[in-house]
Design a protein that fits this description.
elongated, 3 domains, 385 residues, 3-stranded antiparallel β-sheet, hpI Integrase, Chain A, 8 strands, 15 helices, DNA polymerase, domain 1
Amino acid sequence: MGSIVALQGGQYKARYRDHLGRSRSKTFRLKKDATDFLKTVGSDIVRGAYVDPRLGRITFAEWSQHWLDTKVNLRPGSLARYRRVLRLSLVPAFGSMRLASIGPLDVRKWLAELASAQPSSEVRRSYVMLRMVMKAAVENELIVKTPCVAELPRATQAEMRFLTVAEVDEAAEAINPHSKVLVYVLAYCGLRWGEAVGLKRKYVDTSRRTIRVEEQLTEVDHQFYFAQPLKTAAARRTVRMPAFVATLLEEHFAYVEALRRDLGLPPLGRDDLIFTNTKCRPWHRASFRLNHWVRATKASGLAGLRVHDLRHTAVAFAINLSNAHPKAVQIRFGHSSIQQTYDRYGHLFPQMDEAIADDLDQAYRARRNDAPSGQPRIPTLASSR
């Protein structure tokens, strides 16, 4: 697979041709090292595992930027998250290192340091990103194998809060009247924030009591991206609303029409957003939270409640107040799979296990009641000894 040439000064040059037929060489102090190198390179070329060692000299910062530049189909929010993770977590740790020099021990040490300073969700997000970057380096034959062999850190789910019907009323009454109906839509229809603030008039039919979730509003670094694709294909759905929510929405439309007249704006059109700030502009999430939501939750004794907890509340209402089947819950709230519904809200389905136990008991008793005379109908400890 190659040859060894003795050089002046007692060194040895190993010459070989790579998988593309290009001439390559490497110098060693010992002839044995040169011989072993040629054997390894030859084996790698035969197995298709050869990687040009010069390619691995590119730094992580250079490669990660090149990798990011190829991600042309990412949504604005995802692209912003990728850039943030690279800038704040990965490049500071590995940026100046050559790709080929990053080993499993380096990754494990970085993970340990990250876990001591950041929540598990952030650690997972950073590690997943690193795995993607290094996997792409392997696929592009920059390195032989990825150093990301550690297990993915376990995620700890943020604790969910579920409101009662009375508490939803209290939160809605405490917030600025302009946003009262938004609270009810979130709590009883279970829309995600981006789905709700991106909801257009044409998607709401109060006569049929339906809301079509077709798109969402995304905000990245205070910039809005309208009519963005939903989180998953399953998130595209039609949600039937309670009659009282439909009535509230009709009142809300009348209020919005009056507000638009006062602002000198045209009537509410089919493609206009129905939940906006008082200037009829899209809601900035931070502005809504700090200027309205936090105040309302404190005033109603619900301090610390997150806006997303209204979606959790909507799920709890569907399960506990209407005994909805898990499949119906999955469809109504746009979960990607029924497994996701079980994983997230399985503890809210106690009646299902209870029903199973009751059915088993009924079947057992029916069998005993059909037993011939002289046999015990229900077993006892005494009869089983």
